[in-house]
Design brief:
Blueprint (H helix, E strand, L loop, with lengths): L1 H31 L3 E6 L2 E5 L3 H8 L2 E6 L2 H12 L10
Amino acid sequence: MDQGRNTRACSLACAVVIGALAAVSGSGMALAQSGYGVFCANGRIEIDSRSEEEMRRQRGACQFSRFDSRSDAENFARRNFNGVGASCSCR
């Protein structure tokens, strides 16, 4: 009987720890959205600090990648799409 009680207590403690880790990692994901995204909006490459969800909702845009600095985002756009303003498609 005591072993079963200890197992349940351990399971509960593990569940609490896992829940706490999930909460911390969830807040970390919000931080991951900071920076600059490279988007296709209205058929043109754009760089914007809005989240992927905001750009999709507000502009109908799709995101190709996300970077900590604007210069990294611009370099990605230049290397992969011939720069900001170049033609693109979300398909």
